[in-house]
Amino acid sequence: MDWHALVSVFSNIPLDWVVLAVFALIMSADALRGGPSRATALALALPLTLLVASALPDARLMGSIASQLSTPLIAALLHGILLVIIFICMYRITDTYGADSSHPIQAVFSGVAVAVIAVVVWLQIPALESVWHFGPQIQAVFGDAYRFWWLLISFIALAFARG
């Protein structure tokens, strides 16, 4: 077997796709081991974080503090803190249906769906560009033109994985 040819094939894959695949693999492994409840909670928390963060500048007490956070890294950290808080709330709200694990196909659906939702939401938050900037391929595939369809298909896949 020609290892150099195999290495050259994989070396031409953009790093963005590798990061996305590794995240989907981690979420699929978690769903296979513990069921799709954490994947579902994260999938629900990601868009809600976007909604809550957009309402933050108009908040009574936090609005003035949030407006002073002008650096992108601090704004990304604030999004991360909001994501953790909302994830914990969504995990407590959603019911696990007594499932300790899921089937491999359901786990793959859960992992891929959460990865797609994460990328779609990531592209909508300008502050996260300071943490990781996705290339033009990812932006074209998961950008504004197809955002609705990716979110809809991902939530349908999560509904299948939960059922």
TrEMBL record:
Regions that span the bilayer: 6-27, 39-57, 69-93, 105-125, 145-161
Key words of the record: Membrane, Transmembrane, Transmembrane helix
Name recorded for this polypeptide: Uncharacterized protein
Lineage summary: Bacteria, Candidatus Kaiseribacteriota
